[in-house]
Design brief:
Elements: E1 4-10, H1 14-28, E2 33-36, H2 41-47, H3 53-60, E3 64-69, H4 85-95, E4 100-105, H5 119-122, E5 127-132, E6 142-145, E7 148-151, H6 157-178, E8 183-188, H7 194-207, E9 214-219, H8 220-229, E10 236-239, H9 241-252, E11 262-266, E12 273-277, H10 294-307, H11 311-326, E13 329-330, H12 332-335, E14 351-352, H13 355-367
Parallel strand pairs: 1-2, 1-3, 3-12, 5-10, 8-9, 8-10, 13-14
Antiparallel strand pairs: 4-5, 4-11, 6-7, 11-12
The structure holds nicotinamide-adenine-dinucleotide, 3-isopropylmalic acid and manganese (II) ion (MN).
Length: 368
């Protein structure tokens, strides 16, 4: 039986990074059946809505969904009556029941100096953000009056409990693989928000089933600070939808660029997952051929691991990505305008490359 992957290129740099990712996927699953659909702004242009019923139905029948990014200035509006590309993304996550968003942050040594943070701060960092993806303020009642507007944040015990279990299970798996003590940092704003007090209560209750996992609670503002002051102290970070969104972009900079962070969005066992980079459609660099495709490649790796049951293939992609970075390949987001001179004679010099060269390098590294 062949594997069916629905691909959603979306907008901006989306198509530029999705095509190379499909090329990479074909190297592993030669008989993969790719079904591409318009999504986001492109779908608004074609059909007047960011996610059509047909596309959602197609995603439901896929083995997994690979998405690049949506949005852009063309569809930016403050008019609540106008459709927005991002509604497609939220509709897809909700429609597929993808409540658990995993965002691994694993800075690779070759990029320690690409980060604006000091190497000695980043060294040893290997964390996982577990973001609740189908609840909270993203999906509460919202509205606009002539002179006011509101968004509401609601969480049920059941919603908090299932994401907490995802986090504790992930911490256990990571500890088994690394030998480190398992730890979950639960992030909330329990000093102010009622939903956060429920969150803290439920997470503490779930922890009773995992006495091998150390649980700590951090207020979100303090968590934001500690992610850049002591990132290596984190293991699994579990947070509600909005906090997880913000903290993961912040954590991306530990890897050197937002263009490095992949994600897996998962729902009920057996249902198709959604795999996408954490970053957006980067309208500022769209069409220039310089977008970093590595977050999408690493999302393909997550798809192979969590969606298609091929963990060894996932590791091969991750190793190939590490290798090209060790070889000095840098898209401009990683080069920061100034390429560092090689620190030692046996370290290859850094070379600035575009999306196509980076793709070729990864595919060649896989073949060797
Ligand atoms: P963004 O993530 O698109 O870009 C932020 C900055 O990071 C930009 O300077 C961009 O050039 C850079 N960047 C991002 N990805 C990169 C890559 N792969 N290679 C090189 N540089 C990269 O965030 P934004 O500019 O705030 O948002 C632009 C649009 O994307 C908005 O419409 C937003 O809603 C949307 N968005 C979509 C998703 C998604 O589809 N999952 C995620 C975030 C934002
Ligand atoms: C992300 C994005 C989305 C989010 C937007 C585009 C709706 O920022 O995937 O992180 O906030 O979830
Ligand atoms: Mn985001």
């Amino acid at each position: 039986m062949s594997t069916k992957i629905v691909t959603l290129p979306g907008d901006g740099i989306g198509p530029e990074i999705l095509a190379p990712a499909v090329e990479l996927l074909r190297a592993f699953v030669p008989d993969v059946e790719i079904e591409e659909h318009v999504f986001g702004g492109a779908s608004i242009d074609a059909h007047g809505t960011a996610l059509t019923d047909e596309v959602l139905a197609a995603c439901r029948t896929a083995d997994a969904v690979l998405l690049a990014a949506v949005g852009g200035p063309k569809w930016d509006t403050t008019d609540p009556a106008q459709p927005r590309p991002e509604q497609g993304l939220l509709g897809l996550r909700k429609g597929l029941g993808l409540y658990a968003n995993l965002r691994p942050v694993r800075p690779v040594p070759a990029l320690y100096d690409a980060s604006p943070l000091r190497r000695d701060i980043i060294e040893g960092t290997d964390l996982l953000v577990v973001r609740e993806l189908t609840g909270g303020i993203y999906f509460g009642k919202s509205g606009r009056e002539p002179d006011s507007a509101y968004d509401t944040c609601t969480y049920t015990r059941a919603e908090v409990e299932r994401i907490a279990r995802t986090a504790f299970e992930a911490a256990r798996r990571r500890a088994a693989a690394s030998g480190r003590r398992a730890k979950v940092t639960s992030v909330d704003k329990a000093n102010v928000m009622e939903t956060s007090r429920l969150w803290r209560e439920v997470v503490t209750g779930v922890a009773a089933d995992y006495d091998d996992v150390h649980l700590e609670h951090l207020l979100v503002d303090n968590a934001a600070m500690q992610l850049v002051s002591h990132p290596a102290d984190f293991d699994v970070v579990v947070a509600e939808n909005l906090f997880g969104d913000i903290l993961s972009d912040e954590a991306a900079m530990l890897t050197g660029s937002l263009g490095m962070l992949p994600s897996a969005s998962l729902g009920a066992a057996g249902d198709p997952g959604l795999f996408e980079p954490v970053h957006g459609s980067a309208p500022d660099i769209a069409g220039k051929g310089i977008a970093n495709p590595l977050a999408t490649f690493l999302s393909v790796a997550l798809m192979l691991r969590h969606g298609l049951g091929r963990p060894e293939d996932a590791e091969r992609i991750e190793r190939a990505v590490d290798e090209v970075l060790e070889d000095g390949m840098r898209t401009p987001d990683l080069a920061g305008g100034t390429l560092a001179p090689p620190p030692m004679a046996d370290v290859p010099p850094e070379v600035e490359v575009g999306t196509a060269e980076m793709t070729t390098a990864v595919i060649e590294a896989l073949a060797s």
